[in-house]
Amino acid sequence: MYNNCLNRSKARKRGKCLKNIFAAAEQFIPSGKVVDIREYGHGNINNTYLVTVDVTGEDHFILQRINTQVFRRPELVMLNMSVATGHAIMRLRQMQLREGRRWEVPRVLMARDGRDHWLDPEGSFWRAVSFIEAAKSFDTIQDIGHAREVGYALGMFHTLLSDLPPDRLADTLEGFHITPRYIRHYDEVLLKYRGAKSPEVNYCLQFVSSRSAWAHLLEIAKQQGILDLRPIHGDPKVNNILMDTADGRAIGIVDLDTVKPGLVHYDIGDCLRSGCNPMGEETVQWEGVRFDPDLCRAVLQGYLEMAKGFLTVNDFEYLYDSIRLIAFELGLRFFTDFLEGNVYFKVRSPEHNLARALVQFRLTESIEEQEKTIRGIIRDLR
Ligand code: ADP
Ligand code: GN1
Ligand code: MG
Predict the structure, then answer these.
(1) For ligand 1, mutation pick of 39, 40, 150 (most atoms within 8 Å of CB)
(2) Burial of 242 (0-12, 13-18, 19+ CB in 10 A)
(3) % residues pLDDT > 70 (the chain)
(4) Closest residue CA from atom 4 of ligand 1
(5) How far is residue 75's CA from residue 78's CA, in Å, rounded to a whole number?
(6) How far is the CA of 380 from the centre of ligand 2 (A)?
């Protein structure tokens, strides 16, 4: 269940937990007072808070308790964040942004002891980042213009890191986006599953088994040297992309915990599976989920406007498969987590991850049904 103490009910536990959040927030302000703390955003992994302080000029910041069940080496997450943001800021200074555009990079804030994080008495890992003002993120794609900006944001991010040697980044989450590893884990979990086999569970079981051989293709292309490792974001879904509240243009991308060496295909696939599903990944009406080709064209147009220059012929060859694969992979990750008893993603009910898996599998089917159209869009934009 959502393990967030601002809404946790057990009074004693909640009291202790609140004390830790306030204590954590205070670590990241050199002077002044914390005025308010509230939950922020809808991330599935960390606990995120917006902190208001009475310091003029810097009146808000983002405070996060890193989920160390997921990120076993949070110090590496912080190291990557500082390498990636440092490089992006340097590149940004050399770049001419188009008229009227802004691009913001979240900054790591230091704790009073000069470190980039603070451990509370219970051992929780807290970090703070600068708040990007006058910006908003959406959980679902709003329209064609939004889709184009979401693509632009990913293209901008890849451009800013395109000359950073990937080996300067650590692997913060081993196996992340390595689909064959998710399949192996799924097989192990399935052997132990003793729960009910409802029609929905059976649909998912069938769905995975009919696609698991194909799911190795990006990793095979990587091993064969057809696709190269580059710095990637890892999680460029719609709600990690911030839009300017004044003009609706993309101004930044947050959630840098999964920045690491990887295939840009993981990012492109993730951005498209998220940006082309107008019903969103949390809908309960999974049967109505559809991959929208017009949104796909817009996201890719926005992306390629920035990134076309560094994509190779081979990169283009694998674009369609990466869209299909990352939707499938996320469905598999949600479904495995459901079978395993919800140990990874935050959930609101025991069936939440099953509902999310159904959405991604239906989205995958819709991508498959429209293969010709999607390949046509990619061909047109090359
Ligand atoms: P999680 O890893 O749990 O997804 P995120 O880092 O994505 O956590 O933060 C959750 C949400 O908070 C984001 O989707 C975004 O809307 C908002 N957010 C995060 N960092 C910032 C920031 N620096 N400025 C403004 N909003 C932010
Ligand atoms: C998680 O943290 P958040 O909500 O931005 C997950 C992504 C999934 C996403 C699905 C580290 O992202 O991989 O695509 O949920 N992040 C991690 O909503 O596993
Ligand atoms: Mg997030």
Answers:
(1) 40
(2) buried
(3) 95
(4) 43
(5) 5
(6) 31
CATH number for the domain spanning 167: value is 3.90.1200.10
Same structural domain for residues 282 and 221? yes
What's the pLDDT tens digit per position in 181-222? 999 999 999 999 999 999 999 999 999 999 999 999 999 999
265 CB contacts (<8 Å, ≥6 apart)?
218, 227, 315, 318, 319, 321, 322, 325, 326
Paired residues of 230 in beta bridges: 262
Domain finish residue from 66, 100, 130: 130
Asked if 141 contacts 291 with a C-beta cutoff of 8 angstroms, the reply is no
The domain of 45 spans: 13-130
Question: What is the pLDDT, as a whole number, of residue 98?
Answer: 87
> CB of 273 closer than 6 A to ligand 2?
no
Q: CA distances (Å), 296 to each of 146, 147, 348, 377, in order?
A: 11, 8, 30, 8
Q: Which residue lies with its CA nearest to atom 1 of ligand 2? A: 44
